[in-house]
Design a protein that fits this description.
heterodimer; A: mainly beta; 7-stranded mixed β-sheet; 4-stranded antiparallel β-sheet; 11 strands; 0% helix; 54% strand; B: 109 residues; mainly beta; 6-stranded mixed β-sheet; 5-stranded antiparallel β-sheet; globular
Chain lengths: 116, 109
C-alpha cells in the first residue's frame, strides 16, 4: 500500500481567491489522480496528474480552473482558482499501487474546502 | 460511458445485524474496488475484487463479472461500520475510477 498525505486538511476561503492543495506519497508511483467530492455526492475524477507533462483533464474540468503540477513521482499539487461557493467540496488525491495481479487505488485523507 | 449503480442508497441497522450492499455496472470492467468512507471523510480500501469472492473478517465481497454485479456483505455489524460504502470500477487502461453513488449505512447501538 501507499501512505498519502495532503495539505491543508481543511480551509475556509473567500470567493475570488485561489488555494493550492499538496499531495505527498511515501513511495514513487506512476499514476496520481485528483478527485472532487461535492457535499453529499460521490467522487468525480478531475484529472490525471502526469509526471513531466501536462495533466489529463476529464470532461467538465479545465486547466485554467484547476491547474495541476507533478514535478516528480511522489508529489503533486492541485490549485482551485478564482473560487466560488460552488467549489466547496472535499478534494482528494489518489495513487495507483500495482501489486501482484492487482491494481489498487489508495486515497489521501482529503482537503475540505469551504468557500464563502 | 460506463454506469455504476449502488443499492440501497440508505440503510439503517441495529448493531449485530447483517446486510448486503449491491453494485451493478453496465459494461465489462478491468477492476472493481469497494471503499468505506468514514464519518471523517477518509476513504478506506476494503476489497480489490474484479471477480470471485474475498473475505476479510466480518466483511466479504463477491463479484460476478459475467453478470456485471458485485455484492458486499457485512456481518454482525458494529457502530464503527457506519459511513458511506462506495463501489468503483475501471474499464480501460489508465486507472480512472468511476464511482457509484454510494450506500449510506447507519448502525445504531
Amino acid at each position: 500500500s501507499a501512505v498519502i498525505s495532503q495539505k491543508p486538511s481543511r480551509d475556509i476561503c473567500q470567493r475570488g481567491t485561489s488555494l493550492t492543495i499538496q499531495c505527498q506519497v511515501d513511495s514513487q508511483v506512476t499514476m496520481m489522480f485528483w478527485y472532487r467530492q461535492q457535499p453529499g455526492q460521490s467522487l468525480t475524477l478531475i484529472a490525471t496528474a502526469n509526471q513531466g507533462s501536462e495533466a489529463t483533464y476529464e470532461s467538465g474540468f479545465v486547466i485554467d480552473k484547476f491547474p495541476i503540477s507533478r514535478p516528480n513521482l511522489t508529489f503533486s499539487t492541485l490549485t482551485v482558482s478564482n473560487m466560488s461557493p460552488e467549489d466547496s467540496s472535499i478534494y482528494l488525491c489518489s495513487v495507483e499501487h500495482v501489486g501482484q495481479r492487482q491494481e489498487t487505488q489508495y486515497f489521501g485523507p482529503g482537503t475540505r474546502l469551504l468557500v464563502l | 460511458g460506463i454506469q455504476v449503480e449502488q443499492s440501497p442508497p440508505d440503510l439503517i441497522l441495529q448493531e449485530g445485524a447483517n446486510s448486503t450492499l449491491r453494485c451493478n455496472f453496465s459494461d465489462s470492467v478491468n477492476n472493481l474496488q469497494w471503499f468505506h468512507q468514514n464519518p471523517w471523510g477518509q476513504l478506506i480500501n476494503l476489497f480489490y475484487i474484479p471477480s470471485g469472492t474475498k473475505q476479510n473478517g466480518r466483511l466479504s465481497a463477491t463479484t460476478v463479472a459475467t453478470e456485471r454485479y458485485s455484492l458486499l456483505y457485512i456481518s454482525s455489524s458494529q457502530t464503527t461500520d457506519s459511513g458511506v460504502y462506495f463501489c468503483a470500477v475501471t474499464y480501460n487502461q489508465g486507472g480512472k475510477l468511476i464511482f457509484g453513488q454510494g450506500t449510506e449505512l447507519s448502525v445504531k447501538p
